[in-house]
Amino acid sequence: MSDIASVLVTGGAGFIGGAVCRRLVRRGYRVVNLDKLTYAADLNALRGLDGEANYRFHQADICDGPKVASILADEQVHAIMHLAAETHVDRSIDGPDVFVQTNVVGTVALLNAALDYWRTLDGRRRDAFRFHHVSTDEVFGDLDLDEGVFTEETPYAPSSPYSASKAASDHFVRAWHETYGLPVVLSNCSNNYGPFHFPEKLIPLIILNALEGKELPVYGDGRNVRDWLYVDDHAAALELVLTKGELGQNYNIGGRAERSNIGVVETICDLLDAKVPLASGEARRSLIRFVTDRPGHDRRYAIDPTKAEQDLGWHAEESFETGLEKTVDWFLQNDWWWRPIREQRYSGARLGTGA
Ligand code: NAD
């Protein structure tokens, strides 16, 4: 049984952080959500937690060391789960600086605050403390279509400014463990999808464009492969990594669900045609448009999650088919959440292929 009963979650107003906050509160942890509230954040996704005695929110920037230090001193959490980041690959190509600032400089500022805080703890609290860094499989670069899978031993070879900044942050987290003894665990996950996914990412963008009978943009030839995981399965894995992961280790998390982008788009079209046919009777696959490929677009990601399965007893509950249908149903039933974001905050002009 873990001694961790309270967790500071950074980036808890984002897509995965929100799923983590909802899960941990439901499971009885005291959760302190620290988030800057960038364009990607949405507190509406956490409305269900308002008024919960074991949930607190602080608006703060991870780069602001003194503020983070004072929140840690006040809240006296048992662990930190670090998800705050700039995450959208296309945005990192247009403007990499903020990715370096938040993902690299911000992670180092957070590590410093965590180290100072950990050093104030004593006895059992100090032994139990964990800094869990949440990262991506994109740090490993890409694979050929017929090449193997990423394991924990795969060398880092990031391609985009986003993945380079996450790779750098992973290295700093390991360095704070090796150099200063900070108790850390890391996890690298494949592409997530599910409820409250920001409408600029591939799956929600395609669901919502298809629902509205708009064109469905697909990069290049659409044969790029991603390994998909339902977000609640990721949240379950993160809880296990935090509470049962071995110090200094990293765990690959993935759903063994490799799909080509065009395959994902076609599946969404077919699901929506069956649930809400277009008034014209037209099949939604006819809305697919191939557009100029993203520069440096990674061909394939694929994760081997054997270590997390064997050492932590984690298994994804959703297959890609069940998870995708749940996600489509969720978007059909929750336009109160996505419609204001799509209409007021985000034009829907960009594409995404996940994180
Ligand atoms: P997201 O973009 O939905 O949310 C990121 C959150 O971080 C937002 O709420 C934002 O306000 C907050 N944030 C950004 N800069 C901040 C700062 N300087 N200080 C405090 N908060 C800040 O991201 P996500 O998709 O939920 O991803 C969460 C984490 O998981 C990231 O670290 C990402 O690299 C990693 N990851 C994501 C995926 C994926 O498929 N989405 C896959 C693997 C790993």
Please describe what this structure looks like.
This protein is α/β, with parallel strands linked by helices and 355 residues long. It has a domain at 6-197 and 227-258 and 300-318: NAD(P)-binding Rossmann-like Domain (Rossmann fold). Helices cover 42% and strands 16% of the residues. The chain contains 12 helices and 12 strands. The protein has helices at residues 15-26, 65-75, 89-94, 97-120, 123-128, 161-180, 202-211, 231-244, 261-275, 306-312, 320-333, 335-345; strands spanning 6-10, 30-35, 55-59, 79-82, 130-136, 184-189, 191-193, 216-219, 225-230, 250-253, 258-260, 288-291. β1, α1 and β2 form a beta-alpha-beta unit. The two termini are 32 Å apart. Residues 347-355 have low confidence and may be disordered. The chain binds nicotinamide-adenine-dinucleotide. It catalyses: dTDP-alpha-D-glucose = dTDP-4-dehydro-6-deoxy-alpha-D-glucose + H2O. It is an enzyme of class 4 (lyase). It holds the Pfam family GDP_Man_Dehyd. Its EC number is 4.2.1.46. InterPro entries: dTDP_Gluc_deHydtase, NAD(P)-bd_dom, NAD(P)-bd_dom_sf.
Proportion of residues in extended strands:
15-25%
Share of helical residues: 40-55%
Sheet with most strands: strand arrangement:
3-2-1-4-5-6-10
What would CATH call the class of the domain at 6-197 and 227-258 and 300-318? Alpha Beta
DSSP E strands, number: 12
| C-alpha Rg (nearest Å) | 20 Å
Give the class from helix and strand content and strand pairing: alpha/beta
CATH superfamily of the domain at 6-197 and 227-258 and 300-318: NAD(P)-binding Rossmann-like Domain
Heterogens: nicotinamide-adenine-dinucleotide
The SSE order reads: EHEEHEHHHEHEEHEEHEEHEHHH
Mean pLDDT: 94
What is the straight-line distance between the termini?
Answer: 32 Å
Q: DSSP helix count? A: 12
CATH architecture of the domain at 6-197 and 227-258 and 300-318: 3-Layer(aba) Sandwich
The CATH topology of the domain at 6-197 and 227-258 and 300-318 turns out to be Rossmann fold
Q: What gross morphology would you assign?
A: globular
The unreliable regions are: 347-355
Pfam family, one: GDP_Man_Dehyd
Protein name: dTDP-glucose 4,6-dehydratase
Catalytic activity: dTDP-alpha-D-glucose = dTDP-4-dehydro-6-deoxy-alpha-D-glucose + H2O
Domain NAD(P)-binding: 8-327
